[in-house]
Design a protein that fits this description.
single chain, 301 residues, alpha/beta, Rossmann fold, seven-stranded mixed beta sheet, binds zinc ion
């Protein structure tokens, strides 16, 4: 184990952070799916500590940059039906932002998966679309017509021109990167004046996550940090964004998917799932506030 790190959002000293949850990693259970999106929860995690200054919960001894990049590159990819449902939930949550943008032309998505959200943006009038995705399995699952938008790899500011995007999105990815501050600062430089940076993250302080505690799906080996409304706002405002808003929103998924996330023993979940399938309930879509937040900030015009 190397040295501990300071808070990646406000840089407060790790020595003042308090233990949030002890490390729990069973290397025998690690699989390619441990780093896939929307998998079944495993409740494995790095040691997480809580910053007393901005409230961020973070892995104080995260794996190295190269190790993370490799894990995401080889990560398996699961159902795109859930990816489609997620994209529809995100577009509903951020559509109010579109009217406030200076222009609606070019958009970048960091962690684009199969590029489904870029397709939503094209329907909203964006014409110049770019997505970054480290998982080759996710890109392979993307339909041919979306692949032209997707670049394989990790996000690197140097790959883009300054002030070249009207909208930069990063959904369910800020928890996974080693340094969310770097992404927030880079995005600000890549935005045109009047453009917006939008993230979707978990909120570990939301009622559902506080209720589930250690059995929450957000307790996950993939997560290098966990945000709350306060720490998300701190990230955006300290990076220099204006008119920052942080809001909870509703995710709509099939009952089948909700069952997969449920904190119940596997046998019971399988029994309920097959019962639901037998009466055709498993495809019913249900909107739930699962403790996700959308954070938006603008680059001053
Ligand atoms: Zn902090």
């Amino acid at each position: 184990m190397g040295e501990s790190r300071n808070c990646p959002v406000c840089h407060a000293d790790f020595k003042n952070a308090k233990l949030f949850i002890e490390k729990n990693i069973d290397s025998a259970k690690l699989s390619g799916f441990s780093f896939a999106s929307r998998k079944e929860p495993e409740y494995m995690c790095h040691r997480l500590v809580q910053c007393p200054n901005c409230g961020l919960v973070y892995a104080d001894q995260p794996p190295g940059e190269d190790e993370l990049a490799h894990a995401y590159h080889v990560a398996d990819y699961d159902s795109s039906e859930e990816a489609n449902d997620a994209a529809a939930s995100y577009i509903r949550a951020i559509r109010p932002t579109f009217g406030a943008l200076a222009r609606r032309q070019s958009a970048l998505e960091i962690g684009t998966g199969t590029g489904i959200f870029l397709e939503c943006l094209s329907r909203e009038g964006f014409t110049n679309l770019v997505g970054i995705e480290p998982s080759s399995a996710a890109i392979a699952a993307a339909p041919e017509y979306r692949r032209a938008w997707i670049r394989e790899g990790m996000f690197d500011e140097k790959d883009f021109d300054p002030e070249s995007f009207d909208l930069i999105c990063c959904f369910m990815t800020m928890e996974h990167v080693r340094d969310p501050g770097i992404i927030a600062h880079s995005a600000l430089r890549l935005l045109r004046p009047g453009g917006a940076f939008v993230t979707v993250t978990h909120d570990y302080r939301s009622p559902i996550n506080r209720l589930l505690g250690k059995r929450s799906p957000i307790i996950d080996i993939e997560h290098m940090q966990l945000f709350s409304k306060r720490s998300a706002r701190h990230l955006f405002e300290s990076a220099g964004y204006a008119d920052v808003t942080v809001k909870a929103f509703v995710n709509t998924y099939s009952l089948r998917y909700w069952m997969r996330l449920a904190p119940l023993p596997r046998g019971i979940k399988l029994a309920i799932s097959s019962l639901m399938a037998s009466i055709g309930l498993d495809n019913v879509k249900l909107g739930v506030n699962v403790g996700n937040i959308v954070t938006t900030g603008f680059k001053r015009a």
